[in-house]
Design goal:
four-stranded mixed beta sheet, mainly beta, 146 residues, four-stranded antiparallel beta sheet, 44% strand, Immunoglobulin-like
Length: 146
C-alpha cells in the first residue's frame, strides 16, 4: 500500500496567491493517479501558465472527439473522456484478447481570474488543448470604518 501525503486545505494561500494554488493543486493531485475510482483512469496532463492565459494539455490517445466532455463548475475545470477498446489476436491455439472500457477524468481547480466566457478547446491527434484566458482580477473592496 502506498502512502500519499495528507491533503490539507490551503484556502488562505489560494486567496492570496491564486496562480500558486493552481500549480499546488495540480501537483498535489498528480500523486492521486494510482488511486482513481474503479474503472476510471487519470489522463496525463500539463498545466502551463502564460502571461495572458493558462493552457491545459491532455493526452487522450485513441479517444474520439465526440467522447470528450469539458465543463466548468465554479472554479473547477473537469475533463472527462470515455473509451471502448478491444484488441484480439489469434494464432493457432494461441488466443489473446485485451480490452479496456471505461472513463478518464481530471479536475483542476483554477483561480478566479479565468475568463470563463472565452475558453477555447481543440482536439487533434489524440491531444486535447484547452486555453483559459485570464481576466483582470476584481479589485479588493475597501470598507470604511465608521
Amino acid at each position: 500500500m502506498k502512502n500519499y501525503p495528507k491533503k490539507t486545505s490551503n484556502r488562505r494561500n489560494r486567496d492570496l496567491f491564486p496562480a500558486v494554488s493552481l500549480f499546488d493543486n495540480f501537483l498535489q493531485r498528480f500523486f492521486d493517479e494510482d488511486i482513481a475510482e474503479e474503472n476510471e483512469r487519470m489522463m496525463a496532463i500539463d498545466v502551463i501558465e502564460n502571461d495572458d492565459n493558462y493552457q491545459v494539455i491532455a493526452d487522450l490517445p485513441g479517444i474520439k472527439k465526440d467522447n470528450i466532455s469539458i465543463s466548468m463548475d465554479d472554479n473547477e475545470l473537469v475533463i472527462e473522456a470515455q473509451q471502448d477498446e478491444k484488441r484480439e489476436e489469434k494464432k493457432g491455439s494461441y488466443y489473446r484478447c485485451e480490452r479496456y472500457s471505461g472513463n478518464y477524468r481530471r479536475s483542476i481547480f483554477l483561480s478566479e481570474n479565468v475568463d470563463r466566457n472565452n475558453i477555447d478547446a481543440k482536439f487533434e491527434d489524440g491531444v486535447l488543448e484547452i486555453v483559459l484566458p485570464k481576466k483582470e482580477p476584481k479589485p479588493v473592496k475597501k470598507i470604511a470604518v465608521k
